[in-house]
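ARCHIVE CARD
Drawer: 12
Card no.: 0347
Subject: one protein chain, sequence and derived structure
Cross-reference: see card 0346
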Amino acid sequence: MTMHQMIQEAAEFVRARGFDGHFDAAFVLGTGLGTLVDELSDAVSLPYAEIPHFPGSGVSGHAGKLVTGSLEGKRVLLFQGRAHYYETGDAGAMRIPVALVKELGIPVFVATNAAGSVRPDIRPGSLVAISDHLNLSGGNPLLRDHSEGRFVSLTNAYDSDLRQILQRAARKSGIDLPEGVYAWLSGPSFETPAEIRMVQILGGDLVGMSTVPEVILARYHGLKAAAVSVVTNLAAGIEGASPSHQETKDTAAEASEKFKRLIRSFVAELPHV
């Protein structure tokens, strides 16, 4: 079966189960951020395990469900969890979910994540709009793609118009939303203090194990993309920090109310398409 056929099969399956019609935006929800689904009205949920060709998510803090419903008068699609490069060895693990966004005609794709801060002035609990990225993982989701589309431009990958909407939403919500460069490393082990010093030298502000491949895939499909990090820890070696996954989950949960406030305001600000 070709990739196109797998995408079509997944799309037909979800459409037949209530995921049809118009959508305004799609969101991938990172570690500890899945409770955004509780904000939806008229929600419909479908486990990833039931959707043909969908990846599983074997990380605690990721429920592994596709959810749709209404938020601030807009219809949204939520990926409650993701598959990671470090789980599969495939940087394109989210290839079919992102292609599904395109197939369903959704114009806006927003990735969210839990991230470490390499800047002492961006503290745990902060929200950051990603303005650009550093791919330090050695992987790319378009490897082995033989189409001309693989040579996708990543200039303005994190769409400037969407970032303006995020900033407007943050101001209306009383939330400080700095922007920063996100460095993607493969994981699953956390970075060493030396790697964090490298990221600082290269101009990174955040470090994490996701998001970048999804944004590359979104741009491959011509989607407008944005991304928001919830800072869950200071990165390794900064003020003696030694990150853990439990810390990531706990801090993300603590920041989830502020995160949900931002996303609700962002969705309200999105123009009807």
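Annotation on reverse: The chain has a mean pLDDT of 94. The chain has one domain: 3-269.
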